[in-house]
Protein backbone atom coordinates (compact mmCIF):
# COMPACT_ATOMS: atom_id res chain seq x y z
CA UNK A 1 0.00 0.00 0.00
CA UNK A 2 1.30 3.37 -0.93
CA UNK A 3 0.72 5.69 2.06
CA UNK A 4 1.06 8.74 -0.11
CA UNK A 5 -2.11 8.03 -2.10
CA UNK A 6 -5.47 9.32 -0.83
CA UNK A 7 -7.88 6.78 0.69
CA UNK A 8 -11.04 6.02 -1.22
CA UNK A 9 -14.36 7.01 0.30
CA UNK A 10 -15.41 3.35 0.56
CA UNK A 11 -12.36 2.50 2.67
CA UNK A 12 -12.95 5.48 4.95
CA UNK A 13 -16.62 4.54 5.35
CA UNK A 14 -15.73 0.90 6.06
CA UNK A 15 -13.11 1.91 8.62
CA UNK A 16 -15.66 4.22 10.29
CA UNK A 17 -18.28 1.46 10.47
CA UNK A 18 -15.78 -0.96 11.96
CA UNK A 19 -14.74 1.62 14.54
CA UNK A 20 -18.36 2.32 15.53
CA UNK A 21 -19.11 -1.43 15.72
CA UNK A 22 -16.08 -2.05 17.90
CA UNK A 23 -17.03 0.86 20.17
CA UNK A 24 -20.55 -0.55 20.61
CA UNK A 25 -19.23 -4.03 21.46
CA UNK A 26 -16.72 -2.63 23.96
CA UNK A 27 -19.32 -0.38 25.60
CA UNK A 28 -22.07 -3.01 25.84
CA UNK A 29 -19.90 -6.11 26.39
CA UNK A 30 -21.21 -6.86 29.93
CA UNK A 31 -24.77 -6.94 28.59
CA UNK A 32 -23.87 -9.13 25.61
CA UNK A 33 -21.90 -11.56 27.79
CA UNK A 34 -24.64 -11.86 30.38
CA UNK A 35 -27.29 -12.32 27.70
CA UNK A 36 -25.36 -14.94 25.77
CA UNK A 37 -23.43 -16.81 28.46
CA UNK A 38 -25.66 -16.77 31.54
CA UNK A 39 -28.41 -19.34 31.89
CA UNK A 40 -31.82 -17.81 32.61
CA UNK A 41 -32.77 -17.88 36.30
CA UNK A 42 -34.63 -20.95 37.41
CA UNK A 43 -33.61 -23.02 34.41
CA UNK A 44 -31.85 -26.29 34.96
CA UNK A 45 -34.28 -28.05 37.31
CA UNK A 46 -37.93 -28.62 36.56
CA UNK A 47 -40.75 -30.69 37.94
CA UNK A 48 -43.65 -32.52 36.39
CA UNK A 49 -46.74 -33.73 38.18
CA UNK A 50 -48.50 -36.86 37.01
CA UNK A 51 -52.19 -35.93 37.00
CA UNK A 52 -53.24 -39.54 37.21
CA UNK A 53 -53.71 -40.33 40.88
CA UNK A 54 -51.17 -42.89 41.99
CA UNK A 55 -51.75 -46.01 44.08
CA UNK A 56 -48.08 -47.04 44.03
CA UNK A 57 -46.85 -45.29 47.19
CA UNK A 58 -46.22 -45.82 50.87
CA UNK A 59 -47.09 -43.32 53.56
CA UNK A 60 -43.45 -42.38 54.20
CA UNK A 61 -43.09 -41.31 50.54
CA UNK A 62 -45.96 -38.81 50.71
CA UNK A 63 -45.73 -35.20 51.81
CA UNK A 64 -48.90 -33.35 52.73
CA UNK A 65 -49.64 -30.27 50.64
CA UNK A 66 -50.09 -28.18 53.82
CA UNK A 67 -46.57 -29.13 54.98
CA UNK A 68 -44.94 -27.56 51.93
CA UNK A 69 -43.74 -23.96 51.83
CA UNK A 70 -45.81 -21.40 49.95
CA UNK A 71 -43.27 -21.44 47.11
CA UNK A 72 -43.42 -25.23 46.87
CA UNK A 73 -47.22 -25.13 46.88
CA UNK A 74 -47.29 -22.54 44.08
CA UNK A 75 -44.80 -24.60 42.07
CA UNK A 76 -46.81 -27.79 42.61
CA UNK A 77 -50.07 -26.04 41.66
CA UNK A 78 -48.54 -24.65 38.48
CA UNK A 79 -47.08 -28.02 37.49
CA UNK A 80 -50.34 -29.82 38.31
CA UNK A 81 -52.46 -27.51 36.16
CA UNK A 82 -50.25 -27.43 33.07
CA UNK A 83 -48.62 -29.98 30.84
CA UNK A 84 -44.88 -30.16 30.28
CA UNK A 85 -42.05 -28.95 32.46
CA UNK A 86 -42.42 -26.37 35.19
CA UNK A 87 -39.07 -24.79 35.98
CA UNK A 88 -38.14 -24.36 39.63
CA UNK A 89 -37.38 -20.75 40.58
CA UNK A 90 -34.09 -20.19 42.40
CA UNK A 91 -35.86 -19.27 45.63
CA UNK A 92 -37.91 -22.51 45.85
CA UNK A 93 -36.39 -25.59 47.50
CA UNK A 94 -37.03 -28.64 45.31
CA UNK A 95 -35.07 -30.99 47.58
CA UNK A 96 -38.34 -31.92 49.25
CA UNK A 97 -39.02 -34.24 46.30
CA UNK A 98 -35.47 -34.76 45.11
CA UNK A 99 -33.45 -35.77 48.17
CA UNK A 100 -36.05 -36.50 50.83
CA UNK A 101 -37.53 -39.55 49.06
CA UNK A 102 -40.99 -37.99 49.11
CA UNK A 103 -41.91 -38.00 45.43
CA UNK A 104 -45.65 -37.92 46.17
CA UNK A 105 -47.92 -35.10 47.32
CA UNK A 106 -51.32 -35.57 48.95
CA UNK A 107 -53.58 -32.77 47.73
CA UNK A 108 -57.35 -32.60 48.31
CA UNK A 109 -57.54 -36.30 49.15
CA UNK A 110 -55.60 -37.46 46.08
CA UNK A 111 -51.94 -38.44 45.79
CA UNK A 112 -49.85 -37.10 42.89
CA UNK A 113 -46.37 -38.18 41.81
CA UNK A 114 -43.83 -35.39 41.39
CA UNK A 115 -40.84 -36.02 39.12
CA UNK A 116 -37.66 -33.95 39.04
CA UNK A 117 -36.12 -33.25 35.65
CA UNK A 118 -32.63 -31.78 35.33
CA UNK A 119 -32.40 -29.85 32.11
TrEMBL record:
Pfam families, sorted: DUF7979
Keyword entries, A-Z: Membrane, Transmembrane, Transmembrane helix
InterPro entries per UniProt: DUF7979
Protein's recorded name: DUF7979 domain-containing protein
All copies of domain DUF7979, residue ranges: 53-115
Provenance organism: Halococcoides cellulosivorans
Transmembrane segments: 12-38
Amino acid sequence: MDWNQPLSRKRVALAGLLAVGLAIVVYFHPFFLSFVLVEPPGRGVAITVDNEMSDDWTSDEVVEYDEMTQGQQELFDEARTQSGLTYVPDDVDHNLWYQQDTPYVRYNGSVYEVSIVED
